[in-house]
Amino acid sequence: MRRYVLTGTPGAGKTSILRCLAEHGYEVVEEAATAVIARAQAQGEGEPWTRASFIDEVVDLQKQRQLRASATKSVQVFDRSPVCTHALANYLGRPVSRALSAEIERITAEKIYERQVLFVRNLGFCEPTSARRISFQESLVFEKVHEQSYRAFGFELIDIPAGDLADRVAAVSSVISRPGS
């Protein structure tokens, strides 16, 4: 089983790439933070990322999704990983919790994800959504924090440059379809 992480700056098009990969038959696992935010906002909480428990809720959902992911396909693509959550904690100025530290230890010790991480580069803008309230300039800072976190944990970043969706999907597919890559 090869599990790849698709990451990058907010608003870079990761979800669109993931949807195309699913249409091409790859097993994909959606981002946990967006789901945690959407669930809280549906219950009337406007900014759940300000809650002290937010990071640990994201970590818990990421772990659940990773463990539940089907083992029937040889390749899985995850929209973000606990390393992204580490970057988020740093970006928000939050301490790295025990739960986050333990999950990062687990994924690195068990080699859950491939060392090659697909890093989707920004498109030159960032459109806000109810879950993504970040300016383009802030997203560039967050992008750098992501790069630093992945490198600090020994991952290799494979750049997926800005471009049209088909080219980006092709770039991702060329990496994840290689046997033993």
Automatic annotation (TrEMBL):
Q: Taxonomically, which superkingdom?
A: Bacteria
Give the InterPro entries listed for this entry: NadR/Ttd14_AAA_dom (IPR038727), P-loop_NTPase (IPR027417)
The NadR/Ttd14 AAA domain covers 3-168
Question: What Pfam families does the entry give?
Answer: AAA_28
Name listed for the protein in its UniProt record:
NadR/Ttd14 AAA domain-containing protein
Q: Which organism is it from?
A: Streptomyces daghestanicus
